[in-house]
From TrEMBL:
The active site is at 106 (proton acceptor). The lineage of its organism: Bacteria, Pseudomonadati, Planctomycetota, Planctomycetia, Isosphaerales. It comes from the Bacteria. InterPro entries: NagB/RpiA_transferase-like, Ribose5P_isomerase_typA_subgr, Ribose5P_isomerase_type_A. This is Ribose-5-phosphate isomerase A. It catalyses: aldehydo-D-ribose 5-phosphate = D-ribulose 5-phosphate. Signal peptide: none annotated. The keyword GTP-binding does not apply. Catalyzes the reversible conversion of ribose-5-phosphate to ribulose 5-phosphate. The gene is rpiA.
């Protein structure tokens, strides 16, 4: 319960950063969902006017229900502010994301944003990446068995992500996700380069240099850290 309260405080704190006229990347996951809901309240109560750029089908559906005008990332010149959650954040503000399966579009939108805000509850802040969370890797459906083998040669303990029905999980983009466990995860930058060098890997859940403001929620409020 306390984590949910902390998530809500982080989301509400970040929502205040949105000003009328902005183009705002809307993240995916439960914390980002609370952000979208808070922005919907501000649209209804204050007449806030901004354009949302969703990072997943589920975020787009939620935002549409709340009358938030949306554009695809390819239909906007740039994104002023991106607000998204994270699975883990280390002391250098490097992140693991992708537990929700939206990492490719999340990373694309984050990369075109001028300012990236990460909203988390305290348990996401970790001393070192990869101790508890695997690194999700989005891969081509074609050849995925061979890609999985190649990832194993990089030291990954691999697991093809499956849906509740046991079938391979398919991302919004039609790709598969191989969750890669590394313990320990030595150097995130080196690992990111190694993963991306595997033919058929589209993107990884290592978000490096993509956190300009970290908002850590607590049961009684939120702290904004400019990185
Ligand atoms: O999947 C994702 O990248 C989400 O943003 C995830 O990292 C955070 O989801 P949560 O807010 O539901 O914990």
């Amino acid at each position: 319960f306390e984590a949910d309260l902390a998530k809500a405080h982080a989301a509400r704190s970040a929502a205040e950063l949105v000003q009328s006229g902005m183009i705002v990347g809307l993240g995916s996951g439960s914390t980002a969902g609370l952000l979208v809901k808070r922005l919907g309240e501000r649209v209804a109560e204050e007449g806030l006017e901004f354009v949302g750029v969703p990072t997943s089908v589920s975020t787009a559906e939620l935002a549409r229900e709340l009358n938030i005008p949306l554009r695809d990332v390819d239909d906007v010149p740039a994104v002023d502010l991106n607000i998204d959650g994270a699975d883990e954040v280390d002391p250098e503000y490097r992140m693991i994301k992708g537990r929700g399966g939206a990492l490719l579009r999340e990373k694309l939108v984050a990369c075109v944003a001028s300012r990236r805000v990460t909203i988390v509850s305290p348990e996401k802040v970790v001393p070192r990446l990869g101790i508890d969370s695997p690194v999700p890797v989005e891969v081509s459906r074609l050849g995925y068995r061979h890609i999985e083998q190649r990832l194993r040669t990089l030291g990954a303990r691999t697991s093809l992500r499956r849906g509740p029905d046991g079938a391979p999980f398919v991302t919004d983009g039609g790709n598969l996700i191989i969750d890669c466990g590394f313990s320990p995860l030595a150097d995130p930058d080196t690992l990111e380069a190694g993963l991306k060098s595997v033919v058929g890997v589209f993107e990884t859940g290592l978000f490096l240099g993509l956190c300009d403001v970290l908002v850590v929620g607590r049961p009684d409020g939120a702290e904004q850290i400019v990185t």
